[in-house]
Design brief:
The chain is an alpha/beta fold. It has 3 domains: 79 residues, Roll (Archaeosine Trna-guanine Transglycosylase, Chain: A, domain 4), CATH 2.30.130; 127 residues, 3-Layer(aba) Sandwich (Rossmann fold), CATH 3.40.50; 227 residues. A hairpin with a 5-residue loop joins strand 10 and strand 11. Helix 2 packs across helix 10 and helix 5 crosses helix 13. The longest helix is centred in the middle third of the chain and has 20 residues. The N and C termini lie far apart (57 Å). InterPro entries: GD_AH_C, GD_AH_second, SAF, SAF_UxaA/GarD, UxaA_altronate/galactarate_dh. One of its GO terms (molecular function) is hydrolase activity.
């Protein structure tokens, strides 16, 4: 296994796969570089002299500007490299030929639940959704009691579980802020993995059940029950009884379907310097495979596209989609600027400790989760996927908020890459992929797949193994987060609080 990787022949830095100590010799083809300082794994080392003010290049693109002269072999990080991002930009659409991802070689299949509207679920569950934080605990109690009764009464696995997804919002919100909360909850209520949904309200909240139901198509409402707790006698008993009604209606059996029926969300969180070298490009290969099969892939975390957005814009299927990407990226930058915050505040302290220095570097690694798929759709926050191919979805980088948005958009499984690790889970099966083998070894209770294996075995066999794991999970195998009971949602709060 190499000690360091040079990603692109035009790069001026390489990334360490293992720690380097002062005096170590690193080899890149015919070039040898001597480390000038102890440098951790995942961090960068200069392979060419870089003058102050010059761009530093990784992935074949600038990742920032040198703030000091950098000698060959020097550690390149926050002490001598800074972002070059600043404000919104103008972009111009240039029609071109978008490469088609390679076809799915094995016509992979999974065992899914085919719904009446043609969508395919990876789980058949009953979801309990509170309209407002005041009844969050009530929703949790209803779900727990109903799930316990289900486990006791059913052994056929036709219903995979009853789960409540709580949040603190739904009241003291105005305008677009309230609309966003309502849209996310309505979209979750329409998710194919929810065979039935109980909506639990208080009664006096801003997020009224009647308005929420208006965002749920009429064809879906027979599988939705509602409970206004202020009007109920014993709200717990009534809620459990309503869930029992849904269980009787929602029973289903799995059947064999192809990857064309999968809606795959892709996400990274707690990234390190190896995420863009191992886990993210590995997921990109799965994204290409799903799109080539005729399925859908959803990419979000718009701030983690800053500095790499042109790579996605160049893959827009037409000018309308291109304009949608431009608007989404620039609007998100204005969101930061309007709050007097820089657009480049990312990466997080954990990212920096793991070797990521600038947002450009993080973004260039993050967008690799989409592979080379063409962008066919752009969705606003709370939007729902209605096209095959690659969809870009408006949401921030925050793990819980963005993964909730992916689920609400219709993702029936999420591939989540991480270099630092996280226990979080979300409404749909979330497969955690470690960027390095050390994390996979240390945290087997969190991690489902080790992408660090690509450093030893290459991408092709590891991608095949990941595809097999994904199909098993889509067919009902539990993820680590599901085994741990880690299932949460988080809603993007953008407005004032009354």
């Amino acid at each position: 296994m190499p000690k360091a990787l040079l990603i692109h022949p035009d790069d001026t830095v390489a990334t360490l796969v293992e720690p380097a100590f002062s005096g170590d010799t690193l080899t890149f083809g015919t070039q040898q570089v001597t480390a000038l300082a102890d440098t951790p794994s995942g961090h960068k080392i200069a392979i060419l002299p870089i003058t102050r003010g010059a761009p530093v290049t990784k992935f074949g693109f600038p990742i920032g500007t040198a703030t000091a002269d950098i000698a060959v072999g020097a550690h390149v990080h926050s002490h001598n490299l800074a972002t070059a991002l600043d404000g919104t930009l103008d972009y111009r659409f240039t029609p071109g030929v978008v490469a088609s991802p390679p076809a799915d070689p094995d016509h992979a299949t999974f065992q899914g639940y085919v719904r009446a509207d043609g969508r395919v679920a990876t789980r058949n569950e009953i979801w309990v959704l509170p309209t407002v934080g005041c009844v969050a605990r009530t929703a949790t109690r209803i779900a727990a009691l109903a799930d316990a009764a289900l486990s006791h009464a059913s052994g056929d696995g036709a219903i995979d579980g009853v789960h409540a997804f709580t949040h603190p919002f739904g009241c003291s919100q105005l305008g677009d802020d309230l609309d966003g909360t309502r849209s996310i909850l309505a979209a979750l209520a329409c998710h194919p993995n929810a065979g039935g949904v109980l909506i639990v309200g208080l009664g006096c909240e801003s997020n009224q059940i009647a308005a929420l139901l208006e965002e749920i198509p009429a064809a879906r409402r027979p599988m939705v029950r509602t409970l206004v707790t202020q009007l109920a006698g014993d709200e717990i008993d009534e809620g459990v009884a309503k869930v029992a009604e849904l269980v009787a209606l929602a029973r289903a059996e799995r059947s064999t379907v192809g990857l064309d029926r999968l809606v795959l969300g892709v996400k990274c969180g707690g990234s390190d310097g190896l995420s863009g070298l191992t886990a993210n490009p590995l997921v990109g290969r799965i994204s290409e495979r799903v799109v080539a099969a005729g399925g859908s892939v959803v990419l979000t975390e718009i701030p983690e596209m800053f500095g790499a957005e042109r790579l996605l814009m160049d893959r827009a299927v037409d000018e309308r989609v291109f304009d949608g990407i431009v608007t989404m990226v620039n609007d998100f930058k204005r969101y930061f600027l309007d709050h007097n915050e820089p657009v480049s505040e990312n990466p997080s302290p954990g990212n920096v400790a793991g070797g990521i220095t600038t947002l450009e570097e993080k973004s260039l690694g993050a967008v690799q989760k989409a592979g080379r798929a063409a962008v066919s759709q752009v969705l606003g926050y709370g939007g729902r996927v209605s096209a095959t191919g690659l969809t870009l979805l408006e949401a921030p980088g925050n793990d819980a908020v963005s993964c909730t948005a992916l689920a609400a958009a219709g993702a029936t499984a999420i591939l989540f890459t991480t270099g630092r690790g996280t226990p979080l889970g979300f409404p749909v099966p979330t497969l955690k992929i470690a960027s390095n083998s050390d994390l996979a070894t240390r945290k087997p209770g969190w991690i489902d797949f080790d992408a660090g294996a690509v450093l030893e075995h290459g991408f092709a066999p590891v991608a095949e193994a990941l595809a097999t794991t994904l199909c098993a999970i889509a067919s009902g195998a539990a993820t680590a987060a599901e085994r741990n009971g880690e299932r949460e949602i988080a809603i993007w709060k953008r407005g004032v609080t009354l």
